[in-house]
Each structure stands twice: as C-alpha cells, then as structure tokens.
Amino acid sequence: MLTMYTLIRTTTILWITNLLDVGWSQNLQTINILFISDRNNLVAEETLNVALNYIRRNPRIGLMLDGIYSVKIGGDDASEILETLCVNYNASIRNNKPPHLVIDTTINGVTSEAVKSFTAALALPTVSASYGQSGDIRQWRNLDGEQQKYLIQISPPADIIPEIIRSIVVAQNITNAGIMFDDTFVMDHKYKSLLQNIPTRHIIASIDDTTSIKLHLSRFRDVDIVNFFVLGKLSIIKSVLDHANSNKLFGRKYAWHVITQDKGSLKCGCSNATILYVKPEPDAGSREKLSNLKTTYGLTSTPELKAAFYFDFYYRSLLAIRSMMNSVEWPTNMTYTTCDEYNEENPLPRRNIDLRRYLKDMTEPPSYAPFLIDTNGHSYEEFTMRLEKVTVLNSQSVSAENVGSWKASLNSPIVVKDAANMSHFSAVTVYRVVTVLQNPFMIQVDDEDGKGVVKFKGYCIDLIEEIRKLIGFEYEIYIAPDNNFGNMDENGQWNGMVKELVEKRADIALGSLSVMAERENVVDFTVPYYDLVGITILMKKPQTPTSLFKFLTVLENDVWMCILGAYFFTSFLMWVFDRWSPYSYQNNRNKYKDDEEKREFNLKECLWFCMTSLTPQGGGEAPKNLSGRLVAATWWLFGFIIIASYTANLAAFLTVSRLDTPVESLDDLSKQYKIQYAPLNGSATMTYFQRMADIETRFYEIWKDMSLNDSLSEVERAKLAVWDYPVSDKYTKMWQAMKEAKLPNTLEEAIERVKSSKSSSEGFAYLGDATDIRYQVMIDCDLQMVGDEFSRKPYAIAVQQGSPLKDQFNNAILLLLNKRKLEKLKETWWNMNPERIQCEKQDNQSDGISIHNIGGVFIVIFVGIGLACFTLAFEYWWYKYKKSSKVANTMNPKQMVIGRGEFTYPIIPNYETSGMRSRNIIQGLRRSISQSTPKQQ
C-alpha cells in the first residue's frame, strides 16, 4: 500500500508542476480520496490507475489528486475490515489530508457492508459500485434525506446484466428456467428478486468447476427444466455448452441463452445447436473515446464493459467533486471525526453536500454508455446488449444473425427485429411419456414409412391429444423397459412405469394404470379418466354341440328301431285282423253299404293308418271289427306315451345342453379343481391375491396367538373357542393353486392357455383386469368373461411427485369429462372398434332352439316332399306305360277297337269271369260303349 501511495504521490507532484508551468493553477482543485477495493476486484484497481493517468495527462480537467489512500480488504471478519479502514482514515486526518470522497468498489457481502457502515457512521461522501438493488445493502437501507445526497451507490454492469433474463422470460412466456453463473457475476441478492412475481419455476446455481456443471445439468433435467441461461466468461460458457452437447441437451425440446460481458464470438464443441448469444456493445457515440482510452491510456483490462464502467465511475465522481468546489457548494470548514473520537450516541451531522445532484447533472461524454443516476439501487450505466442467433454445426459457428437488442435497465423490454425469430429460442415443452402396450389403450403401429419412428394409437393416445389441445405441449412416447405398470418388491424397489417416474426419466405415465395407495406414495395421480375397473375371469366359451338331427338323438337308436318294428308289426297285425275277421268291412260290404266311410284296411291302408295315428291329424276311420279296433286302441295308447315322452325329453335335452357353465364366480373357481387359474406374473392382480393370502395368514397367526395365550382367563379363552375357523382361507388356497398352475408371463401366453383348454369345465382360466378381458372377448368368439368384477380401482394418469402437471391435467380431464369427450372415446374404442367381431349368438336359457339343433326337421320335410315328387312321377310312369302295355298284351286278336274323337276304347269280348263284381263291371262297360259308339268295320 505504501509503494502505491508513494507512486501516486510522485505522479501527483509532477502533474502539479506541469500545471503550474502552463498556467492552469488558477482553476485547479486539489482532491483527496480514500479508495477502497475488494481483493478480488482486480479490474477496479487496474482501471483506477488508467483514470489517474488520464487526469494527469489532461490538465484542462482542472483536478489534482493529492492525498490518495488505497485500501484492499477482504474476508468475512468485519472487525478486521473496520480496523484496516480506520487505520488509513486516521492516517489521512493526521496528515491533514482527509478524504473529500470515498470511492468504494467492494462487491458484496461482509466487506461491502463493513464499508457502508464505516462511511455512514463517519458521514463521509461516498460513491459505491457495490452490487445490490433497492434495500439489498443493509447498512444503507434506512438513510435519511441528507445521507442519500452524499452516500451514493451505482450498480456495476454485472449487477444489471442478469435482468435481461427477466425480460427474455416475459417476452418468451417461459415457464421454467435453469440459470448458471460464474464468478464474474454475483447472484446472491438475485435469488428472490430476479423472477419475482413471474410464474416461472427456476433454479439459480453457481459454476465452481467442471463437476458442478455436470451436477447442475443433471439437476435441471431431473426437475424438468428445459430453458437454460448461462452467465459468465466465454471460456466457461464453452465448457457448459460442451457438457450439454455430450448429454444431448440440444434440440427443439431445449432452449439455450448465453450472456456474457466479454467481447468475441461464441465457440463450442456442439454438433448441432442454435443459441441466443447476448453480449454488450458500446454506444456509437462513445466508440472513438473508448478506442482512445485503450490505445493511448492503456485501458486494456477485460471485460471491456467492466473496465469502461469503472473508468467513467471514477472520472465522473471526481468531476462531480470538482464541480461542487468550483461552485462553492463544498463546505469550506469540512470537519472529520476519527474512528477513536466517534461516538455512536452522537452521530456526526453532514448537511448541504448534494453530490447526487452533481453526478446526475454531469454532461461529460461517457466512454461506453451514459449513466442513469437515481436512488440507490436504481442507478446504473445504460449500456446496450446485442442479441444474436448463433448456429453451430460440427463445432463451427456457421452464422450469427442479429435478432434484437436490450437497453440495460431493471425493467427494460427486449427490442426484436423479427418476433418470429425469437419464437425459435423458446424450448418447445416436450414431455417424456412412458407407457405399456395394452389393447385398446395403447397400440403400437407398424412403421409404414420406413423411417424407424415408433407410432402409437389407442384410447390413451386420443386422450393425451385432447389434453394437449387444452394445455399446449409436445410429447415423446416410449415403452417401459420391462413393459410393466409398476409394482414394489420386498425391498421397496419399483419397476415398470412407476420406476421411470420415480427416477425422473419420464414426466408422464400414460396407460391403464390403476390408482393404488402404495403408488401414490411415490408418484402423483390425476383425477381418474376411466371408471372403476376390477378383476374378473376369462374362460373358454362352452361349445354346445349342435346337430341338424339333434331331435333324433333324444332317443337311443335301439328305441328308434323298436318303435319302427312296433309300427310295422302293428300295421301288419291290423291288416291280418281286418282280412280274416268276419265283421270287417271287406267281408260285410252289404252291411256297411250305407256308411259314408267305406275303408278297406289292406296293407297300404294299415301302414297309413298307423303312421297318421301318431300325428295330431289322426288316423281317420278305425276298423269295423272289434279285434281291429283293439289293435288300433293299443297303438294309439302306445303312440301317446311315445310322443309325450319324446316331447318332454327333447325339451329337457336341449335345455340341459345349454346349462354347461361350471364356473360363474370367483367362489366357484376356488371350489373346483379341474380348472387351473392364475394371473399374470408380476401384475397388480398377482399382487392382490398374494397380499390377500398373506393377510389371511397373518390373521390366522393373530387368532392362534390369542387362542394359545396362557395369560388369558378361562372366560376369555372360552370366548375364543369356536367350532369353525373364524378367518377365511379362500385366498390362501387360491394363491397356492395359482403357484401350482404356474403364472403366465405375458397376456398372449395366458390367452393361449385359455384357448387350449379342453372345455369350459376343464383347462385354464385367466384372472386379470376387466378391460383386458373385455377386449379379448370382443375380438375372439371362443372366449368369455365370467363373474362380476372385484377389487375395483379407477385408471388415472401418473406424474412425478410434486409435478405441476398434476393440476394442469386435472383441469383438462375434468373439462373433457364435462364435454362428454371421455364417453366418446369409450364408444370409439369399444363399441366402434374396427377389430370388434360379431359373434354368433350363443344359446341360453332365455333363447329358443336354434336352427342348428332343429334344422333336421326341415330336412325331413324336404326329403318327404322329394319322395312324394318321385312317387308321383313313378305313378304316372307306371300307369301310362306299364299298365297300357299290359292291357294291350292281354287283348284277343279278334278284338275290335272303336274310337270316338281322339280316344280309343277296346271292344271287350263277351266272356264269363268269376265273381259278381267282375260281371257287373264288364256288362256296364259294354252297354256304355254300345250306346255311345256305332259299330265299325
């Protein structure tokens, strides 16, 4: 410190000598300063020398710095810092060179607060370049009106630059932000104020080394942050972007904004990235002066913006003191109190030093950008930040397009050239959706385009699309590695979709995921989007055997043969009785000549009579003889019994064949042993039966311990003495049966085992979600769902625990429910599903006999009609050809043939035949012929 002080003092003396030589002494103002800097703020210290050199080499300024006391402080010990300050301050008073101005370039923290406490207590005019907005500097938080005139804070550029993040977030409507910064920025006081009153989830993290970069990027990804802001040197920014490229954090899902105080182009090892690059640029009117300071006076500290700010900060502060002295507003009898003389109970008054007004009225052109002087926390340099769209391909910047600018301020909007360009810098909200393939909720579609893109369709796809229209987001779907919904093992570890959410690899779990208490402990569920769904049973549909001639199977073949034999025997017996009985019609024609019914029971008539007697039509006129009637009555009685028995047995036979349903509920399934049954291995259904069996076992142990407890009295033990076991062991037995049946690993395996069952009463039954089973029944007519649903739970969408998506999805699902969109989805994917098969209606108790079982009767009709047609043809043929030829062959050669018209009649010779009937017929035929036809030669 002494070396620097000697150097400055020597420089000042030489400068005074030069001023005296050129005649400027009449306007010269001698100023003493106390310069306080932070040990880490090297740019502030280097720039002070440039400012002093500039003042020395420009005598027209009218300034001479005589007493310059420079103090470097640091650390967290406020007492030590105050001690150092007091030593230098007391020395300046002893040397009769008390400071006109204290220049404070401490950054923040204990050092800054200690300096503020020191200058406020001793009432020293101070200009400070410490970080902090209104109220952030605690020691200057409650300054009175007079103190605010000479205790002045001007925020450095690195304190204003982060405010551009707020402007970008507002302009782009960004809902999440991950902010990283290096040691060139101070963000301690920004945590609460940077994005205050803006609905944006954000994390602010400092970059310490390479490890911290990896940690922060991983942390941002885990909490679903996709908009990144990096504030720092270009070298640090390059390191961050390189790590982001290796972690594949570029693309439409992510947005990158890099902000720096440095000059130069953006570089990174990115393969394909588009980045919004924000960097400062000097005002056009200040560039010449800035260039002169760099080349002539050695203003080469970096960053350029920071060095230029400190130069203007020093220079303008000293000019304000000079202006006050020239205008005679500076007190001539300025009094100072040493640290030893300071009394906290009697603070030193300081009035009429309006340094703030002189700084505000300063007209000196800036070297970078103008200053805005207002209250503490609202005074800063109004520089401009340039926004560029930088495209990097294969580690090379291929373009840098100017898209807008931002004027440094605490609440300044971004000025863009084209709003469409800025829209590309907002990360498209892309959620990772994990799912499980299950028809019809989630169906994988074949890649017809050949692009390798996995596509999906189904109920859940339509659902997420409806939600997306309401909320506005994009999503990527992938299948859970093990294609499971999510179950917890004995060690408390999860699998399936739940594991993907717990380990933050997915944002949404979409599928027919049941809401369970244990799952709600690790993930959040939305309101249900699907009704309560339980567990039910899938079995092979009973195949009722059908036969067109099933009505013939009611009686055995032996019975049919006996009935047929009885028919022929009775018909033959009736013919014999009618022929030999003297009381039959054919043997007593004169006796029954006046009866209307003259029926001769030849063999043909007997066969017909016995056949028609079995029908409602009846057999017609019975035989005249008593013996024949007894045979007919016996046949009628036989027929009545046979028909009644056949009718009753046919109805019973068809009914019993449709009642082949051995299992109708879970209890029925548990009580039989011919049908094996099991759920899918690792499914929620398996967990249900396993835990129910475990609960039964635990209850049994509790009851057993109570029963065998020796400490119980006889009365208490008697109360536990029961004749039946009080706790059911149904699930214990079922779980044991399931393990013996071997649980299938996939739904396809389970369906195959069900379909390969021998029958509905022997084979395999599958227990699973009712939606799975209902869909299988819908597409396969060989399957049926048996029993009522049990253990019913709703389906819902799962998100990460604490995710804001829960409330957004809740609102969307409730809105869809009110619009009846969910009902339409059910109608689409169940009743109108293109894979739905219209199965043949199965016979049941309420239905009639199907054509498959009674169709043989119609065949009998068609066969009978066919035989009748054939018989008619045969009769016609027999009569026309056979009979006529026979008559022709039996004629006498001497016979004469007479004819009339187109008919010819043979002339029958006069010969005697035996029997009265034959003679009468022949004589009548002769008379008719002779009367109607003349004789012909």
Automatic annotation (TrEMBL):
Gene Ontology CC annotations of this record: plasma membrane
Crucial to convey clamshell closure to channel opening (site feature) positions: 663
SUPFAM superfamilies: Periplasmic binding protein-like I, Periplasmic binding protein-like II, Voltage-gated potassium channels
Membrane topology classification: Multi-pass membrane protein
Disulfide bonds: 86-339, 781-839
Location relative to the cell: Cell membrane
InterPro entries with a match to the protein in the record: Glu/Gly-bd, Iono_Glu_rcpt_met, Ionotropic_Glu_rcpt, Iontro_rcpt_C, Peripla_BP_I
Entry superkingdom: Eukaryota
Ionotropic glutamate receptor C-terminal domain sequence ranges: 430-832
Membrane-spanning parts: 559-577, 635-656, 854-879
Secretion signal span: 1-25
Binding positions for L-glutamate per the UniProt entry: 514, 519, 685, 769
Residues annotated as domain Ionotropic glutamate receptor L-glutamate and glycine-binding: 440-503
Keywords: Cell membrane, Disulfide bond, Glycoprotein, Ion channel, Ion transport, Ligand-gated ion channel, Membrane, Receptor, Signal, Transmembrane, Transmembrane helix, Transport
Gene Ontology MF annotations: ligand-gated monoatomic ion channel activity; signaling receptor activity
CDD domains: PBP2_iGluR_putative
Sequence similarity: Belongs to the glutamate-gated ion channel (TC 1.A.10.1) family.
Protein name as annotated: Glutamate receptor, ionotropic kainate 2
